[in-house]
């Protein structure tokens, strides 16, 4: 099994040898993997899914490898499986994952906000990814994040483009009634920027930014957390030394022109649009703060996921398929052209092309090249959710004690996305959590409380 | 003599319009022809304003005229969910306004009639009406979306709730201020209450009722743009939001002009109706 190493194997050994530790060398590991893949292929879908589900449950129950092995050694793999089945409906879960039965609902509505973060959701329509997986999806441009939240909650939309922190906030009932929501896939990583008004072109050091007025699209957004993080790292208290307002992206450009704000951390195309219209310059890309940070998400209610499993699978598959297509640099120009149409983003093609290809005008007369300006990687790492939660905690959006890992696991459906990626011939990561660093400061998803406590500027 | 007054007013209107357009054109044109301040590779990546170092985003009257022509020459196309002709968008808005306004008429006129007939009810309901009347459509919208759970119905509800009050007040006022002499005559002739309502009160109050309807339809048309900007999907308000999202001022000005023209047409229709029911005393 390539997706995970089998947690039922009590003999798993870490250390020397191959990456999974079960084989003497990497070549032996590869050989065993391909043999296993053939065996699984022959065993049929059912058992493959059963495997995935069992392993996911096992991992969820015993996140630490040594605990899991100790448990398996004590009771034996088959007893463990039986014990698991008694507390968790593995059969049903397998069925939900494996079912390839008829799609319950072919005509779907998916809402999106017209920004480049929604690229996979939008392009799946003109480039035929939805129809390829048997769906007739209408992608509906929507007026704002709160409207998208309300229209998905009241079921006008079956699924929607959301900011990655939104489903977490909705599930926890922060800023709305608690309704179980899930992030099925991450839409894009990177792809945001800090844009400043032209008059500040000589004030590139954040330490000079006291008294600035900034805009971000939404309170529960990566934009808000990244801007706050960046300011705080430079000793600027985001609540006391500057003003941060929630402003819809097109209004950010207009406000910048009107001298109402000094800058914004917002989604594209509006950073590039400010440059295109000559009202601002790109101070830095968000990837310079945290390379590989998530931004927007493809979200659906838990109800949709459980009541229409086949539809959900087909939809998720189309999105992941489109995301993989969007990730390839050679497709980017065609995508820019497809989504620039009035029916989708309704923006000049030049602007979108600069964002997607990464060769862009910075607003100060220079042309910059960064092929990774925006990237598309669907895997919803649980550690992303944990990081988001630490920032919610840090800035006082969440005041109570929370179980970071549990919320992350419930909302970010990493296992589903991984399974779907595998079906599409992609290679999903073998873990559901990873550590990363933001502005050079490492983050360990296993120790969220320590991370929150480590900041000098916070509102806890 | 009267004809020449009309003709002279028309000439004056045209002169004012021409002055306005020329002033607009000159104001926008100023400073547009700056020299290129950047290298050609960079200039290709940015728009005209940025490449010449200028900042003006205001379109001139010629741009707007071209855009209006483009929209009006093909008003009814549908190229997908998010791309429809301006005629279709206006039709969506008009339909919502007429439904919301129609329901408001059906409720406000009979209710206003009852309120107007009874001084006690008039006094009792007055505080409520006065409180409800000034509430903005934008305040109703989130509540409507949250409870009705349907964006089209929500916008119709908002139209309804905002256009209800002027009609209610005017109907009640019209009914209450029917001349006492006429009611006394009706009493002397021993006319029944229903016949009295239809043959005496209704014709007497009709001009006031229609004035209320005229105010209401104006409010409804004001409200729909705000409601659709908020809810999105279809309609002229959504068109404005969408072009705003595209930062295209030319299209927004086009939409503003069309909204004004349709509003005027609605107003004129009700003005005609008012003239039909008015009678010389």
Automatic annotation (TrEMBL), chain A:
PROSITE patterns: TAT. The keyword Nucleotide-binding does not apply. Keywords: Cell inner membrane, Cell membrane, Membrane, Signal, Transport. Signal peptide: none annotated. The keyword Cell inner membrane applies. InterPro entries: NrtA/CpmA_ABC-bd_dom, TAT_signal. It comes from the Bacteria. GO terms for cellular component: endomembrane system. It is found in: Endomembrane system. CDD domains: PBP2_NrtA_CpmA_like. Belongs to the CmpA/NrtA family. PANTHER family: ALIPHATIC SULFONATES-BINDING PROTEIN-RELATED (PTHR30024), NITRATE_NITRITE BINDING PROTEIN NRTA (PTHR30024:SF7). This is ABC transporter substrate-binding protein.
UniProtKB/TrEMBL annotation, chain B:
GO terms for cellular component: plasma membrane. CDD domains: TM_PBP2. GO terms for molecular function: nitrate transmembrane transporter activity. It comes from the Bacteria. The keyword Ion transport applies. The keyword Ion transport applies. Residues 90-270 form the ABC transmembrane type-1 domain. Keywords: Cell inner membrane, Cell membrane, Ion transport, Membrane, Transmembrane, Transmembrane helix, Transport. GO terms for biological process: alkanesulfonate transmembrane transport; monoatomic ion transport. Probably part of an ABC transporter complex. Probably responsible for the translocation of the substrate across the membrane. This is Nitrate ABC transporter permease.
